[in-house]
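Subject: Predicted fold for L-serine dehydratase, 410 residues

User T.R. writes:
Posting the sequence so we have a shared reference for the thread.
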Amino acid sequence: MSSVTLESIRQAAEGIRAHVVRTPTVPAARLAETLGCELFLKLESLQFTGSFKDRGACWKLMNLDEEQARRGVIAMSAGNHAQGVAYHARRLGIPATIVMPEFAPFAKVERTRSFGARVVLTGETLDASAVAAREIAERDGLTFVHPYDDSFIISGQGTIGLELLQDLPDLDCVIVPIGGGGLIAGIATALKAERPEIEILGVEAALYPSMHQVLHGQTPTAGGTTLADGIAVKSPGEITREIVRELVADILLADEAALETGVHYLVERQKVVTEGAGAAAIAAMLSQPERFAGRKVAALIGGGNIDVRLLSGVLARGLVRDGRVVRLRVEIIDQPRQLARLAQVIGDSGGNIIEVYHQRLFADVPAKRADIDVVVETRDSEHVAEIIEGLKQGGFPSRVLSSRSMEANL
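User M.O. replies:
I've generated the structure tokens; pasting them so everyone works from the same file.
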């Protein structure tokens, strides 16, 4: 029987009350219109370090004995767990060592250091970093703070479930991202103890379906590069998998396209900045909207620590995917005033030219003709079709280069 109970979660809530953010649960009206349900977002991205990891890390550190606190703690993480442990260790006066893989983003390394932790960069993979962290813990007598498979960590994350019930006591369904399972295990324990009829659904990145596979008796085959790196876990926890097996109704999988769309829509439609893992619940809902139609649903937004450059790329790709930025290849006669005529046709069709590229040397056209690649801002895919028809009528053969999906729509 798990040591994570409603009572342990209530104790955690009381213990960390003054040390973490009591995050809001906000209505998501525009996304709700798209999905056909009543939707609310639990914004754990507003924690001080930008993710729900603050809760479990704080409660774990508060429960160290005097000798453990004096000697210090060690954790292995490439991101959110590292920052949660480092921040609360500094607050509580506990020495902290964080082992991060050699490929960890510079920004996350420096942010973790800024919280006062000693950062050790070692390991070409997360597994190698975990081994190194265990070795350092044994050598230096440090307490290892596991990111998810620990009853104090799980109880700390479970405090989110208590807050959801306070804010929305009549919820039908809660959707929670799954990495190692600490977050959903805690939330499910709290919710099911108070409201057994609530449906709890988990979401994993399709490239990392480790919990789904383990619970179906399969060997985990996780691997690959995913936008949802915060839940890219190859093997779920031993404690967490049993709680999930008992309390979680189903585990959904979100592919990379859905994760990108989730990040994009949250920013554009709800003005919520989230990382890939934080958007997993919305990604799953967008993939299966019929499952949530007419229901009152809460989606857990677990974190907002996304690299700004990556975010800009996701948003730009989203505009292309929606047909609001398109790249056209247009064939013209290579002589004066043709480019002006081309621009006039696009302008008359309501398109806004962003960039123009001439293709003379490497284009597969006759010597007296040229290909022009034009990046155009548009309203939607139907508007793109109107622009292409206008170009055709104006004597400019053209085709879409932006994406196969866009070409298929045209």
